[in-house]
Design brief:
Blueprint: E1 2-4, H1 6-11, E2 16-20, H2 24-28, E3 36-37, H3 43-46, E4 55-59, H4 65-75, E5 80-83, H5 86-99, H6 102-117, H7 121-134, E6 143-148, H8 152-167, E7 173-180, H9 185-198, E8 202-206, H10 209-213, H11 220-238, E9 243-245, H12 250-263, E10 273-275, E11 283-285, H13 293-302, H14 328-342, H15 346-353, E12 364-367, E13 370-373, H16 378-385
Parallel strand pairs: 1-5, 2-3, 2-4, 4-5, 6-7, 6-9, 7-8, 9-11
Antiparallel strand pairs: 10-11, 12-13
Helix pairs in contact: 5-9, 12-14
């Protein structure tokens, strides 16, 4: 079994099969032209559908799972080739081609922008505007630092803000703020290429956060997140902003609620907006609060976009990979996926549960660090009933 890069896959001749082993719903959103889809979990049972006289180029999302599939095919007697980098490598190859042609770049940008207002109007655009209106996230005169990490969520948020400013409310200012905490060269190039493709004018500043937390053994991710947010607040305030916008979405909210219950022993949620405790006059807003991650992924895949997934120093060698494997948040994703099989309303009911709290049935709660118990006025209520 050998490996091939994406150029060989696209330019090679002869009798061959391009086998995409990703899930059917992902395959339908886009693949290499002419590819056939046999999901990884069905491969052993469906090998006979493949022509043994042809070379089989195996494709997954990142080139990791396809390695295992190519080895299985080789052991079964096929001439199997693993495609390095997977479908993401294909998307990056396409992006390079678009970036090299200015006319194609402008056409692609316009098409992506139209998709937000038309194809994804109900699932993304309307939920974006609903979240802003329902939670009063933008007010006249705001100067908002749209914080970009380089992933699908923050890049989509930047485009939504651009469209809102161009075609909707124009009574606020935007700064597209991105911090380079020590990205590797390839991640940083992908971020900049995507910004150029999407027409997002980046305001860049650098820190050494990745180097700082690299030697931390206990909770490095928590420390990194806190440090990055502090730097974003500080730079945004220097630029005259009164708000920072983060790209957390509906799924993040649900997962946070469950993590608090299962691992923190508390009921709380990720709020749509917060006043900063350390930066006076600054506020954090989450305008993608009502948008589901599956719809963000659908927008990304429909537009054949390639974003970094996890730029952390500990996982940066797997550019554009899934990231987060084995984390508590990943556990919550898997749990919710299982629950969803039993009821399509599971996620919305979890979301509504923190909006429909009946304090009469709560044993204890806290406000600003002060704890309260149902016993505080229990005796008094009995007297009132008598």
């Amino acid at each position: 079994m050998r490996e091939a890069d994406i150029k060989e896959l696209l330019t090679g001749a002869g009798e061959r099969i391009v086998l995409d082993i990703r899930p059917p719903e992902t395959f339908r959103r886009g693949s290499v032209e002419g590819a056939v889809n046999i999901p990884m979990e069905e491969l052993r049972e469906r090998m006979d559908e493949l022509d043994r006289e042809k070379t089989v180029y195996v494709l997954c999302h990142t080139g990791d799972q396809s390695m295992e599939a190519a080895e299985e095919l080789s052991e079964a007697g096929f001439c199997a080739v693993n495609v390095k980098g997977g479908y993401r490598a294909f998307l990056k190859h396409q992006l390079v081609g678009v970036m090299a042609r200015q006319d194609s770049l402008e056409e692609e940008r316009a098409r992506i922008e139209r998709s937000l207002i038309k194809k994804f109007r109900k699932t993304i655009w309307c939920k974006f505007t609903k979240g802003i209106n329902e939670y009063d996230l933008i007010r006249d005169g705001d100067r908002i630092a749209v914080c970009i990490s380089g992933g699908k969520d923050s890049m989509l948020m930047a485009k939504l803000f651009q469209e809102l400013h161009r075609h909707g409310r124009a009574n606020f200012e935007l700064v597209f703020l991105i911090m380079n905490p020590g990205y590797n060269e390839e991640n940083w190039r992908i971020i900049q290429d995507n910004a150029k493709l999407l027409g997002i004018p980046l305001t860049v500043f650098e820190t050494d956060i990745f180097d700082t937390v690299a030697g931390i053994d206990k909770n490095p991710c928590y420390l990194c997140a806190r440090m990055r947010r502090g730097h974003l607040y500080a730079r945004a305030k220097e630029l005259g902003c009164n708000k920072i916008a983060l790209g957390h979405h509906f799924d993040d909210v649900i997962e946070t609620i469950l993590m608090g219950m299962f691992y923190g022993g508390k009921v709380e949620t990720m709020m749509p907006k917060l006043h900063s405790r350390n930066f006076e006059g600054m506020e954090l807003i989450r305008p993608m609060y009502l948008i589901r991650e599956a719809d963000i992924q659908a927008w990304r895949d429909y537009n054949r976009l390639c974003f970094i997934q996890c730029a952390c120093r500990f996982t940066e060698n797997c550019v554009s990979c899934g990231g987060g494997q084995g984390s508590k948040r990943e556990e919550m994703k898997e749990l919710i996926a299982e629950l969803r099989k039993k009821s399509e309303f599971i996620e919305m009911n979890i979301f509504r549960s923190v909006q429909n709290v009946n304090l009469k049935t709560i044993i204890g709660y806290s406000i600003d660090g002060e704890k309260h118990s149902f016993l505080d006025d229990y005796a008094a209520k009995v007297q009132e009933e008598l």
